[in-house]
What we know:
A: about 200 residues, B: 3-stranded antiparallel β-sheet
Amino acid sequence: xxxxMGGPDGPPKQAQDERxxxxxxxxxxxxxxxxxxxxxxxxxxxxxxxMLRNRExxxxxAQEAFARAYASLPTFKGESSFSTWLHRIVVNLGxxxxxxxxxxxxxxxxxxxxxPEEGEQELQAADDPAATLEMKQVRELLVRGMAKLPAAxxxxxxxxxxxxxxxxxxxRLVGCNxxxxxxxxxxxxxxxxxxxxxxxxxxx
Amino acid sequence: xxxxxxxxxxxxxxxxxxxxxxxxxxxAAGELSLIERARVEADLxxxxxxxxxxxxxxxxxxxxxTSPPIAMTPGEASAFWPSVQxxxxxxxxxxxxSSHPGFRELVWDHPRLSFLSVAAALLLIIGxxxxxxxxxxxxxxxxxxxxxxxxxxxxxxxxxQTPGGSLKVIxxxxxxxxxxxx
Lengths: 204, 182
């Protein structure tokens, strides 16, 4: 369910490996749980970061998600995969963190990734540097626009557009019905379009 | 030209009003059924503003879907598991937050809905208060007028009436006998 992105170890090669690790971790085998953490930490962090756009908070949420997963492992029935189950914990903690950050006035947008070196490398690697630069500018605008979206809308947008989940999967993860997912997506996309409009008008 | 421009704007507003704009983003994201797609495409032929919207939605999807994943730095990655272990050892969860949104979260996420709820509650309270006061005003008589009061040895008689004189009441107060046996 997680968007493909490797952690230090990457996901277990076979589902059977994951099941074995989960079973051992349920028996309080820390070593086995450590292997699961190393497999999925990169993805958990990426999802949290896409939601929060704040590195420290994303790390906090991802680590907390694993700690909670460990505490709840005895109740994990294995109806979904471990990664799906972990995904749900990250999303719930991410939503809570977003709300807490906004109440506390913590920025949900940081540009630590957009270092000049990284931008330069991306442009050099691109076939069409002008288009790449244009897309980069659009992404920056979108990230700023997303920072202003309500937590529920932003979460649904990230799960749909960044994580590539279906409406049904999002509804199950977030705990709402399909209509609510569609409605939140509509408002989030419309808001982002409004953010982009001025930029697009300049290009025309 | 100006008239043509206005006409385009009117067409677009009409589409918005008809709720068709709600289908543009799902259309751009390829989330519609074949029939719905055909309907939207028919609309797009007549509405240049809608076409621009679809372009914008496509750009949004493309930009978000192709955004590179964010990786942890090597330092963050190597410190990750030890940090999780510390949290597990602590046992307690540092982020004391429930997964279900509370009242404050609902207010924060849905300010318009919250405002409408408060306004509706205020209207209800004002309506009930006004209704009650009108009912009490209508139901309460405007006082009574005592016409006569006569006191005798065995009883007292009071005659009173409503201000218009439409209702007259005679009230007899009997004095209890001091010797019940006699």
